[in-house]
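Dear colleagues,

As part of the handover before I leave the project, I'm documenting each prediction I ran so the next person doesn't have to rerun anything. This entry is a single chain, and its sequence is reproduced below.
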Amino acid sequence: MNSGSKTDIPDGARIVVAGAEARGRMDAFLAAELSDLSRSRLKALIGAGAVTADGATIKDPSRAVKPGATYCVILPAPVPATPVGQDIALDILFEDDHLIVINKPAGLVVHPAPGNPDRTLVNALIHHCGTSLTGIGGVARPGIVHRLDKDTSGVMVVAKTAEAHASLVTQFASRTIERAYGALVWGTPSPAAGRIEGNIGRSPRNRKKMAVLRNGGRPAATRYKVVAAVGSKACRIECRLETGRTHQIRVHLAHIGHPVIGDPLYGGRRKIAGFDADHQALHAFRLGFRHPAGGELLRFEADFSIYFIALQKFLEDL
């Protein structure tokens, strides 16, 4: 165990770790002492000459810790994020100094990408959060720890600090996050509750799609239960994710023969006469996790969208 002490300099630019007794690599020692900085971030800082030992600059992350030495980590101000902030309305469910929880509408892309260079959730968050984004990996950007597809609506949590980002990433990786989705699907699954398991990877037939694969892919599991029949041709189900693969719920439900209604990619060619079902009826209605700073259990819910409710009412008469 390390017995160094951490001192935060008032201007926030330097962190001093004094009185080190442990041996081993310097980057590993500093990562253990400074839990809000990842080891990769510390390696980058060391390589940039931002770490000193007793006043001497150190650039070798594998250098052995010297007992009794005082290490100083100089944290440069976060550089502006590459995406620019844009004034886009957000439905905010909760916000504090550590994170922000929003109800994402269908049609909003989470992160800039080819075809959607701006007008994304990231652009909106950069504008809304401003200086409260303290820097993740040295960049003043929101920490996206999970995503919803463009046309999937519902609850998302985004980190505002490196510490919150690391905590949420760990919670998602350890599968302690509660994620519940509502979906309208064709037909009624049998049994009425169950678990869909199947590796998901890029479809060999259509590279724009994901698919359940016999060989390759990544393990994926989705639990579902039928909530209610919706007319004679559809039902509403609740899904809970055990893993978080790309398009997981949509792929798994299509795989068992009950695709999400309105899904242009996995729903087949089925149209609904009299209703413009232009995107999948899938909504992340609940998200639960532990607060990165206080540790208390938080749970947020978002009402189903007007589109989802209107489609359900229309289907009830079919």
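Residues 145 and 172 are 8 Å apart (CA to CA). The longest strand covers residues 221-230.

All the best with the project,
I.
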